[in-house]
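Model: Ready when you are.
Researcher: Fold this.
Model:
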Amino acid sequence: MTPHDPYLWLESLDSPDAQAWVTAQNQETQRLLDADPRFAPLTAEILAHLQDTRQIPFFAEHDGWLYNFHQDEAHPRGLYRRTTLETYRAGGNDWQPVFDLDALAAAEDEDWFLDGMSHCTLSPSRAMLFLTRGGQDATVCREFDIEAGDFIDDGFNFPEGKSHIAWRDEHSALVCPGWQGAPLTRAGYPREVWRVARGEGGRHEWVKLFVAGKGAMMVAAWRYLDADGAPLDIIEASDSFYRKTYHLIGADDSTRALPLPERADIEGYLHGELLVKLADDWAWQGEQYRAGSLLAVALPALTPDPSPEGRGGAAVSLGRVQVLVAPHDKCSVESVETTRASVVVNLIDKVKSRLTAFDRVDGAWRERALPVPDSGVVEFADQPWDTDIICYSFSDFLTPTGLWRLNVATGEQEVLRAQPAAFDASAFVAEQHSARAADGTAIPYFVVRGRHTVMDGSTPTLMYGYGGFEVPMLPYYVENFGPHWLEKGGAFVLACIRGGGEFGPAWHQAAQGPRRAVSFGDFIAVAEDLVARGLTSPRRLGIEGGSNGGLLVGACMVRRPELFNAVVCEVPLLDMLRYTELLAGASWIDEYGDPADEAERAALAAYSPYHHVAAGAPYPLALFTTSAKDDRVHPGHARKMVARLQALGHDALLIETDAGGHTGNAQQAQTAEELARVLVYLYRQLMD
């Protein structure tokens, strides 16, 4: 039975009453925070840092050009531009404009933001440009001629939707339509895959390749190019967030399912072999492969033998499966990239990064270590096609980000750019500790604090967490929190709780579905450990999280309100009995459970923050943030939570922006305002 919801009307995105309520909430929050004398200078400082020309301009390399998306005071929406590697190496700022987003937005009178630019690998002067209104997930796709500097009128142009569109070659694309009128899943994602071939006058040829069932979550399709340029077209049909089937597209447009386990991800393709990461154990051809493994699977090993001897439904192994990375309790595969000759794997080892390469030697894969820093976090930044080059970033809490260019074949590398230090790190230390969860599990967490912090419980401390979707929380340079939090006497904590991906599939699955509350317990255990160590106290302790992390901090607030004095709950899920009815919510049933199922509904009801707000609880003044353009997590979650808190006699703050979407895709001025507002709130709650 669904409980009565007096605030259902706040889910409406076009109701004048709901909008008037939001406007009043925004005004009250701004009256309190924006009027604080610290807000304006703080916003200006953060904006100046964002627009500092010494910031690393990350790039994607295509055909000898380095392409970068840049925002500054003159281009608040952004400028897509390019330069040469030689100029970049020399530290020059000589960029050639390619596409001016501000000019387009002004000419078309649209609130355009750039969601991405996809170059055709073998003809990179052709690109698909993805535009989003207000930063939402739905995009408009238009083909752009880089050399001409203009859109192609009769090119590949697709209407607004949550589509998946990928180049096949210069004259064709794989298109999964997500626009209005196309068959969509319950979650609002594509159900069909089409091959679209370029035609004269924009009259393109459409060939339907695949249709997913009505109960599916979404489909996607793309083309891999092997080292010799041989193509492999793949369809990913997701029945739910984690369960999917992969299909090969044949030269005759036929499709054939690959007999991979449902919980597995194809991470790449090289030398005729698929790189497959397992989330479940897999029994295949008489062998057992464990969850968490990264495998190199020769394509013939998955392809039924078409000869008469191989017919009858049985797959005949014509290749092999080799384990590249075996699962380990404290190590997991974070990401995979392929170069012209090698597979490069980014491993999380004890919550720090380590890169390793695999090369084909005498028909088998051989591992070798790569000479990269091993004390922080590595992220792949770029891999230019048909090269052995990997560009990666490296940083930790106190080390500014550096951009490295590594030749995987030779091991030679160079630092292309280094971000300027935002603060003097010598005054601080970063430590790794662990808390003990209720079931005895050690929960790692990081603390960044002053080198001479006195452990008397007086340190204002912000704790951040996520704990979902197998997403790991890893150290990162605290470029804004350094000068504006650490230098003011605060400490920062990053909790690596279950539900995340720090230690592979088992760490995630321990807090999945009906076990979701495990992540809340882990987060609370870290908070209690901070207090027990004397770093902070409930009066000085705040928590922050966004999206699934918003669910985390919302749940912890209603469970243990006396433990925290600040809660920053950003673009959150909070009504877990209706989340599947709101926007993309139905796509997350695998992660949380289905409220339409009686047993799973009971588990959701047991922790749904919106339904556990109580009149007499000592909740701190919490700050909830959302966006009217968030078409992934409905702003109704935050709206209704604030309304219920206020109706039961609690103070609560809401800021709902007009742009930014779920991921904060906004102009730099808005980004600076949002961060300054959070900091002022934290000052007031934890420092004043």
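Researcher: Now this one.
Model:
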Amino acid sequence: MKRYYLLATLGLCSKLYAQEVDTTTNRLEQVEVKAYFNKQPLLRLTSSAAVLSSQMIQSLQSPSFVSAMNRVPGLRMEERSPGSYRLALRGSMIRSPFGVRNVKIYLDDFPFTDAGGNTYLNLIDPSAIGQINILKGPDGSIYGANSGGVLSFYSKGFDRSDKPEVNLQLTGGSYGLFQEQLNAILPLSQSQQLAINQSWTRSDGYRQNSALNKKNIQLNYNWQYAKTSELKFTGFYSDLGYQTPGGLTAAQMESDRRQARPKGGPNPGAAEQKAAIYDKTFFGGLSNQTHLSSKMTLFASVFGSSNQIKNPFITNYEKRDEKNLGTRLYLSYADLLSQDLKYEVQLGLEAQKGWYAIDNYDNAQGVATDPQAKDKLENSQQSFFARTQLEWLERLQVELSLGLNENKIGYQQRYPVAQENKENIDFGSTWMPRAALSYLITPILALRASISKGFSAPTVAEVRSSDNTINTMLKPETGTNHEFGLRWHLWNRRIILDAAAYTYQMNNAIIRQVRDNGAEYFQNAGKINQKGLEASLFMYLIRPQTTGMVRSLQLTSNFSLNDYRFKTYQVGDKNYKDNKLPAVPKTVWVNSLDILFPNEFQLDLLSNLTAAIPLDDANTVYANRYHLLQAKLSWSKSVCSPHKIRLFVGADNLLNEKYSLGNDINAFGGRYFNPAPLRNYYGGMSFNF
């Protein structure tokens, strides 16, 4: 780890955008990140963190979060086909056949990760999101079970607006891409505001059997019904359908990279079976925050979701009916111990309950026929937490927090043999401590250090995976994270340096495996050592100005170094000790250049260099390294002020790289690869009125 610390202090890179631009006043504003119950300056935060603004989310391709997320060191998002996403934060996608594992996700402070541990990130519409806050490293002490970190999505429409605002955007592109996005912020009174976000996205997809059709509508409402109290509501309905082309072997990819998985042995092909996922979901949450006094605040929320999912697959046709309910509440108290010493204390609870009916049938070319298995599962999880923070002279911050996580899964088979009684899997109670500090050495240089415990219980989808059996042998992942970092703001924040080095020792890592017929199952893999360096450098080469050929020029350089290896892991007579962890590239280096020209012309460039990625436990198969180059040119013009029209064109994979984004791990039959599109284009317009 010594060389990691040396690289960090040399400042090869840092974490990400600790600022936004205020072009009106021509100055840099330091971003505050909402973390640990309140907003804090990113410079003094005790954890490694990043902030993605709405502008960053929309700076390149708008239909997905992929480009924006992959700017953040330590965060990796993959797209196997349109609508099929995977995400890992300080971890591997070895556990994620699709979706998200090890990471806790919130939407407007409501847990979006459900009681069963699933996070359907593809249901969230990027156009509805105004900001994403990212906390890296285990934060189970107050955020429930996770071992990689926490992502908090905040919707547009909660910031107060004096006048109605409406924005319509239309986008079209290669492979039948079309997207319509409508955002409206409607002040109802001085104390009430409603926001409506609606979108429709469709695509034929780059490969055979990879079409996408997604319809989404979201409402956000806030009402300050008293001087000290505010009520908020977030709710959306999503109708998502996307085809899944399946993995290819290296030879198949070389022969025809646009084909879907062909027939193999006794198994038909993906197109023949009309492999796809259809998900109709309602999600809603209501929260109330009341300042009981100048020192005490009470926050309480209730939330729930209903998912109706159909998944025709190669070997079966799965139908899932999932329902979730939960609550999160806490009491916060802040005061002064002395003129120089502040403190705050929080006590709270987060609890969720989920009910899942999972039925599997034979799949006859996209039609469910004879039943294979039917099960009912229930999942309950509770997290009790306490936290205290001391702040001395706005220089030293010390945080101590402790969580108690409890997780149980009940299951009952309904077919082929009906069980009379429900059985339970109890993952027990786990204490989750965290201790952290940040010290402002000078007004522009801060050091931080932390130690925290990670915990991630098996999800319902892992206990009852696609092989239609209940796995009672899985154990939760646990581990301890040690971390050190620095943030350095130079030259009046024209240069921002942020770096961190960490080591996470994981026990009972959960690994995805695949049976001969393509069905997946999961098992624990002993111990894993995760060592890493994450860093990024932000520079304003030309600060915002009103004259000159270049009105603004900013450069960011983000770097991740990952040394993730099995410490103890043996399957039968095969010992994988010291092997690299699959699905983790050794290095990722992402650079962006944003240039503003006269007459509101803007050019955004993004370069992503990702090293080769091991795809199996034995490290015998690798995905090739790739260099992804993206560009977007936009022009804005005021029309009948204050209305504004904006035109844009963009290109993805300008270097025409042949790469795979979203590889299948430990794939049976060598079907590891999901080829990504070659050079492709898009364009569109938006209108504010």
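Researcher: Key takeaway?
Model: Residues 509 and 525 are 5 Å apart (CA to CA).
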